[in-house]
Structure formats: C-alpha cells, structure tokens
Specification:
The protein folds into 2 domains: 110 residues, NADH Oxidase, CATH 3.40.109.10; 105 residues, NADH Oxidase, CATH 3.40.109.30. Helix content is 29%, strand content 29%. The chain contains 6 helices and 13 strands.
Length: 243
C-alpha cells in the first residue's frame, strides 16, 4: 500500500502496510496480529495543542472506520515509531504518537484473547460525579448529559480516563487530571479522543458548537454556537433554569 497523507491543522495521518511495525505484544483489548494495514497519527510538536488535536482527529477516523465495518483500536505503546517513520514521510518537528491497525477481525477468538477481552470489559468506567464540576447535575440541560455520557465512554490508555469536565452556561471545559503523563502516552491525546465523543454527543442532542484550545491543565472548551440557548432568571427569590 502506498503511503497516504491526510492533514488536519497541527495533526495528520499516514497510512501504510503493517509489516513489522507492531511489536506483537498485547494490551487489555487482546493481541494484534495479521492486520494488512495501519493508520499512523502524526503531530507537529511545534504547536502547543498538537496532542489533543491528534486524539480528536484520530478518533474521528477510528469511529468512521468502525462504522464501515473495519476493526480498529488505538495503539500508543506497542508499535515501532522508527519503522513507521521509514515508510511514511515524517517532516522535521513531527512525531508519530499512535497507530491503529486496519482490517477485518476473525470471527473466532483463542482462549487467551477471550480472557484478555473479558479483563478489558471488567474495567469500570468512572461515574460522571467523579469527572464533573461546575453546575450541579440537576441543572444540566439534556444536551449536556448526552454529551458527557458519550465522552465518558471514550477509550483511553489502560482505561485511565484522565479527563475532567467543568459545566458552565453554554459551555463545557475539558481538563486533564494532572500534567504528568504515564505509560509513555500523552494524557492530552486521551482528552482529544474524549473531545470528539463529547462533540458527537452534543450533535446527537441537536446542539452544535466549536472548540477553543487552552493551556496548562485545561485542554479545551466546547462553546455552543447559540449562546442564548439557556440562561438563569430570577423570580420570587429562586433561580430558574430557562431552556
């Protein structure tokens, strides 16, 4: 397969044949072997928000590939960046952050793969109460809850779920739980994946918006396009939420 370059701001993807690029190891979702092709997720390290943009763009590709019936997953540790760089042109200042195998998975699984898959399913998702701040849940409009539920289901390295959400009128801010990365995989990449899920959840609830990228522990803020969608009004000494 010839290399294919697809650009998206400070991130891009490149496609090629698997060859010996995956290290043959396995993660919590099982072994990866025999995949005919892969997609590499590449970031320009000269830009401050490249990690989350790679996660955002990459998850969009993975979700679309899954919709088309392909088998994919994020691989952030068990691949050979130097082998990928030899097959796909990497400009100075660019870095391969992750890859995803592309192909059609077999129907049956070995006992080892079944055990690994069961272990992955047993990993619990954090409750929204552990992940959110700002407005109390009782004051969330429907689109916020739908968006957060979608973001909560996003994949992350070893299911660490490093994202946190602050809910305010007409916007949701995504932050990382700490600035210290682990497992040699950026937490901001995980947050970019969650950002894609959050936006798709909002769209499913009929709300569109845009992302403004931030610095430090705050990653980005999703702002609804209609800023008058909901507001607070006072009456008889009580606060009423107007939708």
């Amino acid at each position: 397969m010839p290399a294919v370059q697809i650009y998206g701001g400070q991130s891009r993807t490149g496609a090629g044949c698997i060859g010996g690029h995956l290290q043959g190891g396995h993660r919590s979702y099982g072994k990866i072997k025999g995949a005919p092709a892969y997609l590499a997720f590449i970031g320009d390290i000269g830009f401050p928000n490249y990690k989350e943009k790679v996660g955002y763009l990459g998850e969009g590709f993975i979700l679309e590939a899954t919709l088309l019936g392909l088998s994919t997953c994020w691989v952030g540790g068990f691949f050979r960046p130097e082998a990928v760089a030899r097959r796909i042109h990497i400009d100075p200042g660019e870095k391969v952050l992750a890859v995803t195998p592309l192909g059609y998975s077999k129907q049956g699984y070995t006992l080892e793969e079944k055990l690994l898959s069961g272990m992955a399913r047993s990993r619990q998702r954090k409750e929204l109460s552990e992940l959110t701040g700002g407005l109390p849940p009782g004051e969330w409009p429907g689109w916020v809850r739908t968006a957060l539920q979608a973001a909560r289901l996003a994949p992350s390295a070893v299911n660490r779920q490093p994202w946190r959400f602050r809910i305010e009128p007409d916007q949701i801010t995504v932050s990382v739980d700490s600035l210290q990365d682990s497992y040699h995989i950026p937490k901001r990449l995980d947050c970019g994946i969650a950002m894609m899920h959050l936006e798709l959840g909002a769209m499913a609830a009929g709300v569109s918006g845009k992302w403004d990228y931030l610095k430090g522990q705050e990653v980005a803020v999703f702002k609804t396009e209609n800023r008058n969608r909901w507001h607070f009004a006072s009456g008889s000494g009580e606060e009423a939420l107007i939708l």
